Amino acid sequence: MSSTRTTSGKTSGKNGTWRNWGGNVSARPAREVAPASVDELAEAVRGAAEDGLRVKAVGAGHSFTSIAATDGVLIRPHLLTGIRHIDRDAMTVTVEAGTPLKRLNLALAREGLSLTNMGDIMEQTVSGATSTGTHGTGRDSGSIAAQIRGMELVTADGSVLTCSERENPDVFAAARIGLGALGVVTALTFAVEPLFLLTAREEPMPFDRVLADFDELWAENEHFEFYWFPHTGSTNTKRNNRSAGPEQPVGRLQGWFEDEFLSNGVFQAANLVGRAVPAAVPAIARVSSRALSARTYTDTPYKVFTSPRRVRFVEMEYAVPREAVVETLRELRALIDRSRLRISFPVEVRTAPADDITLSTASGRDSAYIAVHMFRGTPYQGYFTAAERIFTAHEGRPHWGKIHTRDAEYFSRVYPRFGEFTALRDRLDPDRLFRNDYLRRVLGP
Fold it and tell me: In terms of Cα–Cα distance, which of 113, 185, 176 is closest to 149?
């Protein structure tokens, strides 16, 4: 087993143990493979089947679930990187599956192109991010997977399958968020557009005002999100809208002070204090909620959508119907206020329009996302369990890469097309080569 290949998740050469970024999931694969071509990957899949081993691909390890864990063959796609082809007539780009989003964003910008929307970090690989349903926030634009126009994957028999709206459309409908259950993704074709500018307006706003004006804030902005600090009545809001320019980025010194020193360095120290002295958390939350002042800046999309996230945490996130988000947040606040929970991380709220992807958390309905976090090493089970009861009461759908306790029986109720996905899985992977414990729970045996 090679032990020299590392990403945010890592393989230790000492004991062969892989751990995810959040530190809450580990696995000891029988062997690790880093294919340098689609043919090598297909050979690795066939070899695993011959040896009676399961197969899982893992990207940057940014999932908090065990979706990529295996005791069989762990495929690391970091040699399958880079742009294969740019089609300026169709306005698409085809990219290798192991390409980090950061590298894709930089390469697209150099070509005068951009994705329409993206999440708030860009350390994940394109295949890992899309397979788990990674998303940002948008009134009209959806998740990263919703921007896929074509896919290539190696299926359980070692064959290479391509799909799009016209070619194998049933596979395309499901595989854009495939959970690693249908095959190993080798390439993705994304819709892109000419590079544009976004103006970000960030400002504090009272929690009660955000809830009262939520529909208006959502309707008036292309991308609206906010962070609520538990134990306080304060939020930080962010409104991103397209701009004709001119480009006015955050100054280097200001960016370092606010995004690195305050949001990462000071916040890390505050969480260490809160973990050691939980009684101090409410006071820390009040200080944190006032740390960042209002600011407005205009820049290329990936510089506006994404932020550095160096403070490690664990996370649960649920998508609820957008019309239920205000009531869900009120219930979450009431839960925290009446409990002895001490929450040092803000609650993040974003939105997405309905899409047509079989197991997308926004499949068939306009959605709002509520994400709860806890500092790594802090007991999180009590908080997450209580929050999950609230989310599931509103028919919430958990992010596939974030902590949850739901199973196939639950998903069959909240996903109208759940049976389509499992039937396709039966056809593409009848012997469950890509199975692991997580997929057994969420998709059934």
Answer: 176
* DSSP label of 293: P
Q: What is the mean pLDDT of each run of 10 residues along the chain (445 residues)?
A: 35 64 93 96 97 96 95 96 97 98 97 96 95 97 97 98 98 98 98 98 96 98 96 95 93 71 72 80 77 88 89 93 98 96 94 98 98 92 97 98 98 98 98 97 95
Residue 433 CA to residue 314 CA, distance in Å, equals 29
Number of other CB atoms surrounding residue 50 within 10 Å = 9
* Inter-helix orientation angle 381-393/325-338, to 10°: 150
Angle between helices 281-289 and 267-276 (to 10 degrees): 160
Ramachandran quadrant class, 103 (left: phi over 0; alpha: psi -120 to 50; beta: rest) = alpha
List residues bridging with 313 in a β-sheet. Answer: 375
Whether the pTM exceeds 0.85: the reply is yes
Q: Residue 139 gets which letter from DSSP?
A: S
| Greatest Cα pair distance in the chain | 60
Q: In what order do the strands lie in the sheet with 313-321?
A: 295-299, 197-206, 234-243, 223-228, 347-352, 367-375, 313-321, 397-398
Contact assessment for residue 93 and residue 191, using Cβ atoms and an 8 Å cutoff: no
Side-chain half-sphere CA neighbours of 219 within 13 A: 5
Query: Cα(33)–Cα(44) distance, rounded to whole angstroms?
Result: 7
Distances (CA, A) of 311 to 160, 261, 307: 39, 12, 12
The rounded distance, in Å, linking the Cα atoms of 272 and 377 is 10
How far CA 295 is from CA of 199, 248, 256, in Å, comes to 10, 11, 14
Q: Smallest Cα–Cα separation from 317: which of 397, 393, 258, 419?
A: 397
Q: How far apart are CA 384 and CA 373, in angstroms?
A: 8
Distances (CA, A) of 96 to 129, 189, 377: 13, 9, 35
